[in-house]
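Recall that a protein's primary structure is simply its ordered list of amino acids. Everything else, from secondary elements to tertiary packing, is in principle encoded there. The following example makes that idea concrete.
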Amino acid sequence: MRFAMRLSLAFGFLMLGGKAAAYFLTGSSAILSDASESVVHLAAVVFAWFSLRLSLRPANPRYLYGFERINFFSAGFEGAMIVLAAVFILVVAVRRAFAGFELENIGAGTLFTLAASVLNVGLGWYLVRTGKRTRSLILEADGKHVLTDSLTGFGVVGGLCLVLWTGWKGFDPLCAMAVALNILWSGGRLIWRSATGLLDNADPRTGSLLREKLDAVCDELGLQYHGVRFRSTGQRLMVEVHLLFAASQTVGEAHRLATLLEERLGETLGQPAEVVTHLEAQDDHEVVHRAAHYTGKPASR
């Protein structure tokens, strides 16, 4: 993860330099929009790099659950920066469309932008793949931003090719506006994902997988459960489950079975997970718990 983030940081500086050179070479609004998005991306990558370092620190007496939820703050910050870039691009494109502008060296600027976009495709794919493999929301969000940046670049190349083909310079600001709307959508999605993560949104697909694995482990150990809750830290899955035992069963045996479930469930989920169980007596459960356990969705067996 650290290597992937350092690679993203190095590419961020490289892309910014190349796109800035392309803008000064051509004076294109579309290339300016692409370069502006790269400025934002570089700032977001620096924050993501810091967030990743912080998220990998172990828990301590002050932060008992560790620092992993910085993942969601990082994704939200990156999304907010993307939205700001989109607004800036729209303002500049509209002003240039009405004020008039001159374009120079369009061919060379197009090649600069195309090369940067191709490199970004490779980097973005690598970051998303590494983020999913390591369950790092920070890397995955950064990779998706890089892929969005590459799509932005291809859009700019398309607009400049239209200018070269038709000779009408109006395609340049129109392309910049289209790019701005695209990255505005991307930034909004990142902010939404950050907000739902901080609010512990229960992903239905994760819930379905969790209950499938939980059913299998409980069948193997001869256990009954209910009261399942789960949330993501951006790197790990935190699971809580209530186990029901006969009143005649010893505490030691119940604890042994609960520990086995915690270990096996964590191994079968295919991602880093921390499972916490709560032991309850089946015989008088309804008397002791007068209110139903809220799980958002029935999950008893």
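The longest helix spans residues 70-99. DSSP finds nine helices and three strands in the chain.
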